[in-house]
Design brief:
Layout (H helix, E strand, L loop, with lengths): L1 H16 L2 H27 L3 H37 L3 H36 L4 H16 L1 H16 L3 H24 L9 H26 L6 H5 L3 H33 L3 H14 L4 H19 L3 H28 L1 H8 L3 H12 L1 H20 L4 H25 L4 H25 L10 H4 L11
Helix pairs in contact: 2-7, 2-11, 2-12, 3-4, 3-5, 3-6, 3-10, 3-11, 3-12, 4-5, 4-6, 5-8, 6-7, 6-8, 7-8, 10-17, 11-15, 12-13, 12-16, 13-16, 14-15, 16-18, 17-18
């Protein structure tokens, strides 16, 4: 009877483990709240001026690349942890977590120092000038200087989420957003007896909310993990585990850095179109981010499942899971996109009363149906390729499609054919669809099956502890 009961419990645990909806809905809400925080910043700063919004947008373009560098370790560790969990090796998963947190802290401190010393020079490279530069310089010094906090948050949140505790990370996001909104209200506009700081207030609020979020994540790490991260795991860095983290993390982050670098070049294009075009891109980008939100949640949930399935050597299940996820993500993207297109003018009017900005924003949002469907396929399939250990292929294809195709195409459309912001949107859409088709056939080829991270001999080692139920 005991054996039968144990088998039934194992099957129930496995069913929970592979439940995409259970994993995805908290991730969706967490991402929604994260994006909402960005929109709240934009909305509140729009009360200061359109130039303030443009300055913060330019600064965030640079900061976002730093965050992607931090994901070298965070994302790489999450995938390695997922495969070790699938192999029922929780002690190794805990060691990977400790190593990842230490590495991210070191990189984060280096980046924080870089922003404090060279933030202004980076803005000069983007051709940011005048009042917009002043706002951007103030923001990048404060938020960039505190980027090491985000480094630790990335490592902690990715690990906790990979263990299946997606609801817990969502609750922390709720707390962080509440603190951030209250902080914005107090510091941007000078309420509760605090000084009216404008852009500086938004930056201080961002750093403060991240600090509180970090402390909660540290507490949560030792509440939810079945095998705890021992202090020695932070100090004794393992060449074996770091190698596996970087094997996935470096290509993954490089592909993302190339993408964001191309976005920076597109931002440079837009600066030559004027301040109104800069503000339009920021507002339209904020609205468009909600279109692919559900796809990002499905992509993250799918990658957790694929990592575990590959670690458990259930590759046929992983293969089928990805195609099913792509169908659900595409359906959600199309529905959300059509709703936003229908209400594009009122949505743009929430941020600004400048009729030219509203008109340009409404025009490019119409093109989102082309861009976001391709982006959706990439989010799900590329995330799954990484989770399976096949992280280099998306980088090679990204370099060809993004750098060699979309940037020259964008230059042609914007400056030679004079299509303005619409040219930027079409160039990005062309890149997304090119890569989407390539990634689809890569997954179908099953070449990713040769890239798993847990070697054959590791599968035969005795498991350290039973796998946790999600």
């Amino acid at each position: 009877m005991t054996a039968i009961s144990s088998t039934k419990e194992s099957l129930r645990s496995e069913a929970k483990e592979l439940n995409l909806i259970r994993l995805t809905w908290p991730i969706f809400l967490e991402l929604f709240l994260f994006m909402l925080m960005g929109s709240v910043d934009t909305f509140m700063l729009s009360s200061v001026s359109d130039n303030a919004v443009s300055g913060v947008g330019a600064a965030n373009q640079i900061i976002s690349i730093a965050i992607l560098v931090l994901e070298v370790i965070g994302n790489g560790a999450a995938i390695v942890v997922a495969q070790y969990i699938g192999s029922k090796k929780l002690s190794e998963a805990a060691q990977v977590t400790g190593n990842a947190i230490t590495l991210n802290l070191i990189v984060g401190l280096i980046l924080s120092t870089g922003f404090l010393l060279f933030g202004g020079h980076l803005l000069d490279l983007l051709h940011v000038q005048g009042t917009i530069y002043d706002y951007a310089q103030s923001y990048i010094s404060i938020v960039g200087g505190g980027i090491f906090l985000q480094a630790l948050i990335n490592a902690l949140a990715a690990t906790i989420r990979t263990h299946g505790f997606t609801k817990e990370t969502m609750y922390v996001s709720v707390l962080m957003n509440v603190i951030h909104v209250v902080g914005n209200y107090a510091l941007i506009f000078g309420h509760f007896g605090l000084p009216k700081l404008g852009v500086e207030g938004a930056a201080i609020s961002t750093v403060g909310s991240r600090l509180i979020c970090l402390l909660v994540f540290l507490w949560l790490l030792y509440r939810v993990m079945e095998v705890r991260v021992e202090f020695s795991y932070y100090i004794n860095l393992s060449r074996k585990f770091i190698g596996k983290i970087l094997r996935i993390g470096i290509p993954s982050a490089l592909e993302s850095v190339v993408y964001q670098s191309c976005q920076l070049v597109f931002t440079l294009y837009v600066t030559y179109l004027g301040a109104e075009a800069m503000a339009t891109r920021q507002y339209a980008g904020n609205i468009s981010s909600y279109i692919y939100l559900f796809s990002m949640a499905i992509g993250m949930g799918t990658s957790i499942i694929v990592g575990r399935l590959v670690g458990a050597r259930r590759k046929e299940d992983a293969y089928k899971r990805v195609f099913s996820s792509v169908k659900w993500a595409l359906a959600a993207t199309i529905v959300i996109d059509l709703i936003i297109i229908l209400f594009r003018v009122p949505l743009m009017s929430v941020f600004t009363d400048n009729p030219l900005i509203v008109q340009m924003g409404a025009q490019v949002i119409l093109l989102s149906i082309l861009l976001e469907t391709g982006r959706t396929c990439n989010i799900v399939i590329i995330g799954s390729l990484r989770a399976a250990g096949d992280a280099k292929f998306p980088v090679y294809m990204g370099l060809i499609s993004m750098v060699c195709m979309s940037l020259p195409l964008g230059f042609l459309l914007v400056f030679k054919l004079h299509m303005g912001l619409a040219g930027v949107w079409l160039a990005i859409a062309a890149d997304e669809w090119t890569r989407a088709v390539i990634m689809y056939f890569r997954w179908r080829s099953r070449a990713w099956e040769k890239h798993e991270l847990i070697e054959t001999e590791e599968h035969h080692e005795p498991a350290a502890a039973p796998a946790p139920a999600l």
